[in-house]
Design brief:
With 109 residues, this protein is an alpha+beta fold. Helix content is 48%, strand content 26%. β3 and β4 form a beta hairpin.
Length: 109
């Protein structure tokens, strides 16, 4: 075989281009539905939780502080932290979990 026929065999036909890209598109689709979409849903749920904060809610911050909201500013909260009733200012973005007064009464019953 000469060199030109070897090159023709190696390059293949032009029809194989889409079949080579199809697995990449399939993998991207899997990543989108398994990783990206659930993260976007969690982010929207967290943003909605931050928008519904009100005074009297008990929150847990990302640093582990647990306290009751006593004042709300634009991007910060004032928490009353037991046992000494310290007043601490934290950012809204640091709030990870909220327990409202209604949830607490159902837990104690």
């Amino acid at each position: 075989m000469n060199m030109q026929s070897l090159l023709a065999v190696q390059t293949g036909g032009g029809g194989m281009g889409w079949l080579g890209i199809a697995p990449l598109i399939f993998i991207f689709g899997i990543f989108y539905f398994l990783l990206i979409l659930p993260q976007q849903r969690r982010q929207k749920k967290w943003q909605a939780m931050l928008e519904t904060l009100k005074t009297g809610d008990k929150v847990t911050t990302s640093g582990g502080l647990r306290g009751t909201i006593i004042a709300i500013k634009d991007d910060a909260l004032h928490l009353r932290v037991p046992p000494d009733n310290l007043r601490v200012e934290v950012t809204k973005a640091s709030v990870m979990q909220v327990t409202t007064a209604e949830e607490e009464t159902t837990k104690t019953k």
